[in-house]
Amino acid sequence: MITDRDVAKQVSEGVIAISRMIDDTLIAAKEHCPEEDFRRLRDGMARVLGELLLEVLNPLYRDHPDLAPEGLYIPTSMKEPPPDAPKVIARRQLMYSLDHAPGSRFDVEIRVFSPSRTSRGQADVHDEHMCRVEYVGFPFGPEWLHGMDSLQALQIGTNIDRFLLDFEKNKQVRFFWPDGSRYFSEEITPSPDEP
Question: Would you say 147 and 73 are in contact if contact means Cβ atoms under 8 Å apart?
Answer without folding.
Answer: no
